[in-house]
């Protein structure tokens, strides 16, 4: 035998001692959810990009210094696990006091009576400081179940180096909503790019991957269609507009305008394909601007999304919500208020290139730290969101519909499922989900 | 371990048997040597050619097998973004530690590493202990219900974790260990694999040794601790290494059972990096290298035990 | 290697007649005492969840809130769910492709490395090394190698004047990429089992065959393949189980896509249980996996009783 008991014990000891110190031994404790009922502590679970994490940390520190004796534990988790974690913690009464949730998922929790009704904490005047569409996004049955923390919308980012090579002059690019490309004009540009680009490069890439599938609805809205009728239940997607939007987006794959790896269920996100130079244009959210600024080794700018019957974009961004079971509802509500007060929101948005939800911060009031020049395009794009879009995108059925959208769109784009069948399947999925 | 010590692990038994077999063969061969020697000489030239060909094939196969690991190192030491740039680079244009600095600066890699170690050590100590006890009982003690329980364990041995994951998850949540080390450690220690390895080993221990100790008046626990355990060092080595390896590389269950960033293990950490907006593959490979290295080193040192263990249990 | 046989030794409790019963009783108590720590863990974390999974599969639950009893409807849904059947088909295809290749390559390499070779030990170590690499790390490495738009393989293909392969956007190449990595991980294991098997074959037999004028190929087919039969059976079982459970690789490399063309039963169960809030349905898929596994274990156990495994 090569190693004696003593030596192996010593080895284990050597390995364990630093490891236990490093991990602080905290992992053996019970659930750390509600902060043990301590009146002065809150837990806040979120996912975050690097710049978001930095801002959250700063703001939490500021909050703690303004409220002596209060501690807020910030817990950053991967987005993929975020909601299965939250679901589990809710079912075991071990949920964090506060968590971050996208507007699509919020409906699931508010409709299942898991969130704190914030009606008593916000008066009319305070509500009036928020963009009405965003306030609607966090409301269910007329009651607010969170605060709209930020929003972000997609615009069209273009690699101007590749466009110039294809003979598309940078000066000809649209700058504001008024001169946005029509679908036809956009198709023309894509075709021109296709003709000039080598086989392994593509005219554009769209950000509908994975949970981003509802971003496809922008095309539907632009075509003048709807997913759900105004009663909030009846499927409305099986329509001439629905067919038009689906046919158009299907053609992206048929004509080789988008990378074949960029379908809805692809594990590769659109931003990677754009930043590595595989796609000449990318439909991307403003929150990616900081990453792109450091990664992309080419010149790029942002232009408005193409329009058809109308202009439209997706409703990105997230709310902050308080769980119903929190032991410190008042403190949690205070924290939420702090996070959405003008200076906090302004700091957060400036650092992360996201858009504010307060009307008093609209326009060019945020001092963006990175690529300030492209931000007006996103701000202008955000104005194209209509209340009827918000209502559909924040329906409690949306998280179930999201799954159906991923399956059906992917089948249409990749597996050749016909437009008719896809719309029929989506219709029954909407019916099933809003039952 | 000497050849004459407890005929323990199957590999040893195989070796022993082979030993006898070769002895017999040698005798037979001696009697025929005269006949076959000239025949051997004629073929020696051809044999040399054969060796050359086989070596060539071996080199090619080995290069193919080792290449992915080489590529991991290349990417880990290349400047950011170089992998996906056009043009073929088969080695880093400049050798850099930037990715390691990045990944260590931006993510709690040291904590993740520590978590992997802590969970690995606890799973291993716990699993090995309970498996040794159970394996010994199944092998050397007679008691009512023994075979029933053993069969039950056997039947569940092959069930993939995903089959009962939802329920296991609800259970872990229900007993309040979701999101703690215990949530990963205890279900991992419930695996039955080691019992069979241990049982097989203990069956090989001659009953006389145990009987002799019993006649001397030793109790079962004392026999186990003082007589049996000292005999099973090779088993201990194999069991320990395999359990540690399994825990270190485990992914699906920790992914489900851990909720906080600061308790993640290295595989979950890798996934976390991959899911960042604009994933940085150079940093991911740097982290992959960090996570793979301890097991590779252990493997190179204790290769013999790993191989014995693999042979016995068919892990993976 | 009969890990699957159940026959303990005869504990020769040959004490004086009068105390025999007492001895048995103590031994029973001690026996149960020895297995109880492991048994308790297994009951709580294995048997209990199995029962719970059966219950869950009859419910509809989002994961929080009150679950709703739905009877057999999750199972009815299974039968009519094309993605479930596709996942089942993919699992079978994956198994049918990986297992024979694993076996053949394992045997080939074992024969190669059992013959006279310089630095044999180093070669063997290299082939076995991937076994200690985690599925996640392997998947990550494979992702950058198979990356479609400018991964290594496609770059090499283009440099050779060939057209790149759609590893990530077409079902068949995606499946192939996962299969290749799975084989890479596993072939070393097959090799060492076969090596052990080969080493127990007496060289005498080959010598006899040579003298009878059998060619190398004939020796291989008539002798080697036949004599490593027990190893082959053992490996067949192990490879089928491993293929049936492939999760980490697919989760990391393809996520089951493109479309559902690399979705297998275990990833589909995970998706339903943990990604799209269909826990009841996920549990039902789990029960199907459980039944298949148990049936397979049973067949294998029956067969191994009549057949001595590797040893």
From TrEMBL, chain A:
Cellular component GO terms, alphabetical: ATP-binding cassette (ABC) transporter complex, substrate-binding subunit-containing
PROSITE patterns to which the protein is assigned, alphabetical: PROKAR_LIPOPROTEIN (PS51257)
Gene3D superfamilies: Periplasmic binding protein-like II
GO molecular function (one): maltose binding
Family (UniProt): Belongs to the bacterial solute-binding protein 1 family.
PANTHER family found in the cross-reference section: MALTOSE-BINDING PERIPLASMIC PROTEIN, MALTOSE_MALTODEXTRIN-BINDING PERIPLASMIC PROTEIN
Protein name (database record): Sugar ABC transporter substrate-binding protein
Species of the source: Candidatus Lumbricidiphila eiseniae
TrEMBL record, chain B:
ABC transmembrane type-1 domain residues: 113-302
Keyword Transport: yes
The keyword Membrane belongs to this UniProt entry's keyword annotation: yes
Membrane topology label: Multi-pass membrane protein
GO cellular component terms, semicolon-separated: plasma membrane
Entry keywords, A to Z: Cell membrane, Membrane, Transmembrane, Transmembrane helix, Transport
Coiled coil start-end: none
Main localization, broad class: membrane
Membrane-spanning ranges: 51-71, 112-137, 149-169, 181-202, 223-245, 281-302
Top-rank lineage group of the source organism: Bacteria
SUPFAM superfamilies: MetI-like
Location in or out of the cell: Cell membrane
Gene Ontology biological process terms from the UniProt entry: transmembrane transport
Family: Belongs to the binding-protein-dependent transport system permease family.
Protein name, as recorded: Sugar ABC transporter permease
Annotated source species: Candidatus Lumbricidiphila eiseniae
